[in-house]
Amino acid sequence: MNKIRISAVSYTNTKPFIYGIQHSGILNKIELSLDMPSDCAQKLIDDVVDIGLIPVAATLNLPHWEIVSEYCIGAVGAVNSVFIFSNCDIKDVKYLQLDPESRSSNNLGLVLLKNYWKVSPELIRNAADYSHSTEANTAFVQIGDRTFGKKEQYKYVYDLAEEWQKFTGLPFMFAGWIANKPIPQEFMDEFNAALKYGLDHRAELFEELPMRDDFDLQDYLMHKIDFDLTADKKKALYMFLDFIKEL
Fold first, then answer.
1. How far apart are alpha carbons 96 and 85 in whole angstroms?
2. Which site among 130, 159, 189, 242 is 20 to 30 Å from 181 CA-CA?
3. What span, in angstroms and rounded, lies between the C-alpha atoms of 200 and 1?
């Protein structure tokens, strides 16, 4: 049988999934690559892989997609790794510098700016240093490990999962295990078992991960990231996609 080609995000928030895949028998049935979120999505769009842990906004670029896992990268309230950092109050932002590694989080920021905060800043897509500006009315979307320890560096900090929950009352789903073609149920069952193994063995994973002085990785992976794909997260997913179409 041809191996299933899988791309997963290389951020810390996927470490439990990768641990499960690497410590189960499924590893010899797949070709696994670790990528930044936007590349992970592009590989699925280009049919370079069969399954991707992709930012949910990227599903809008797929002619066919289906969720193949009971697990995701989500949050119920603050996620502590997806932010708008700003030099001013969000209502006064005139320029928003977007994260080049992001699809969903850039769009989440835009959805909240339009529908929740009611502001329309100019978008800066290719800033020389997208996460820095001395301009007083500039804000920045930033995601993933590069945000660890940064909350104290800015006066105005907006956790986008927390702000989404304030806006909608729902949790948020940042990324899901998405296939661009039908996948055999037998493989999906084994794949889900591998992911569950990783989640059930986070204590062992922490023994391998280097800890940080400026960020609580255990709290992040045990409490801030919510890995179960619940009905409310699916509801939030489709609501979010509808908002993106209206941008």
1. 10
2. 242
3. 29
